């Protein structure tokens, strides 16, 4: 039977990830507490009416012992929400009190413009944006500190746990039906973990609904007396490339007591449509042209059939191919023209071969040809494709090493080279933190931990724990090093920029009976009071193999 501690961790993980999962989730235990002070904790959006300000927490947070993300692509796992043990009070947040924490009565609307939503909560309940474990996910938590005590912390489900997760699903390109099916699959899987896979949770509701903006309801429960008796209710909505999941969790008695309040809050949620979620873009230089593409796409250049470049989406169910050609070099296919239109000066043609659709976007002598690979129709946003074809221009600049490109993040003032076959996770939804997997999602070699990178930005104005200079960072890290886990602290320069570097190392259990030592190197730059932090980590056994790649990545960093 699972321990209470393990049960709490799994339930907390489910609250964070059901409806907000990214890529693959697997079980893992950390055998020693990670040094979270060597990297920013997940970025936090600022409060009401501050549409672009990003705040980055630097506080140390507990390590999750039960859930993580495959290949560490998303870097922080559930340690960011303190899933190892229940909170005995409200978590500290560095976000502005305006719009993120309030004791106001129902009607005091809290705005989260970058998430495209607003909501109200009754007094004395509060709402805050929590630390997110995923760069493409934001989490709002609703809580009542008067209900959280040491006693109830030992009784899972004795107080309601309310989480509203907001996920950028641009890469998956899922609609409501597809997303709610994914939620159900993940919910059942995670709840089964509580019983070691022996007892399947009961799904009591999985139906269409109309509660405020939410159009689907998923309710399920898991009973493991005397350890826990948990009911989880999800309200789900998908708008454009953003998925919203409003979740309440508690014991059956607690759910009955608070269901009406939960429904009142849900009914008062307002969701905007068509908010922008993209953070930056990847600039490709093929040797003949330059083009700016979406960060979620994989690419190769040149392509076959005369293509200047071929991009492919990463959706597991709606994969599409996007080919870039000279206008006169588009391959002839059996498709018959069905319609034409002009969008922002771009000629758009839609053609069919039977039921199979093809879209062609032509501008300034170049054509972008879109072909669905798994469905009959294209589901890519046409305005995005218009912007991409308009970004194409002649260029004889040399391609980047390893058939790569350059990730350009103007919002946070930097650009850095990425290699072909790699994966990026960058979204405004998650507050601006960026995750990078140089070896892609399948980069593990014989179970090893392949290189993963986290990039974050912060300022002392947004976070009092963020240092204002390299010297201040050095003093802080030398103090942290006295507690162990950090070594080789050194000041250096990278491309003429002052930089602080250090190494952290910890032992992790990646599966039952299999341990692995993970090493991370952190690079900290401070320009005009703003910190840019890069953390590169991998299995110790792979360090020598990929150390040169790490140095090349950091040396390609350019501030803009």
Architecture overview:
- The protein has seven helices and 35 strands.
- It has 560 residues and is an alpha+beta fold.
- The strands form seven sheets. Strands 2, 28, 29, 30, 31, 32, 33 and 34 form an eight-stranded antiparallel β-sheet that branches. It has a seven-stranded antiparallel β-sheet with strand order 8-9-10-14-13-12-11, with helices on both faces.
- Strand 11 and strand 12 form a beta hairpin.
- The protein is globular, with a radius of gyration of 24 Å.
- The termini are far apart.
- The relative contact order is 0.12.
- Residues 1-104 have low confidence and may be disordered.
- Residues 88-105 have a biased composition (Low complexity).
- It comes from Trypanosoma brucei equiperdum.
- Keywords: Proteasome.
- Residues 83-110 are annotated as: Disordered.
SS element count, helices: 7
Overall mean pLDDT stands at 80
Specify the biggest β-sheet. Answer: 8 strands, antiparallel
Q: From the 3D structure, determine the CATH topology of the largest domain.
A: Protein Transport Mog1p, Chain A
CATH homologous superfamily placement of the largest domain:
Mog1/PsbP, alpha/beta/alpha sandwich
Protein name: Proteasome maturation protein 10
Region (Disordered): 83-110
Biased composition (Low complexity): 88-105
Keywords: Proteasome
Topology at a glance:
Elements: H1 4-17, E1 25-27, E2 29-30, E3 43-45, E4 54-56, E5 67-69, E6 110-112, E7 117-119, E8 126-130, E9 137-143, H2 150-153, E10 161-168, H3 176-193, E11 202-211, E12 214-224, E13 228-239, E14 242-250, H4 252-267, E15 270-271, E16 281-285, E17 289-293, E18 298-300, E19 309-312, E20 320-326, E21 336-343, E22 346-353, E23 356-363, E24 366-372, H5 382-390, E25 393-394, E26 405-409, E27 414-418, E28 423-426, E29 434-437, E30 452-458, H6 470-481, E31 486-494, E32 497-511, E33 514-527, E34 530-539, H7 543-555, E35 558-559
Antiparallel strand pairs: 1-5, 2-32, 3-4, 6-7, 7-15, 8-9, 9-10, 10-14, 11-12, 12-13, 13-14, 16-17, 16-26, 17-25, 18-19, 19-20, 20-24, 21-22, 22-23, 23-24, 26-27, 27-35, 28-29, 29-30, 30-34, 31-32, 32-33, 33-34
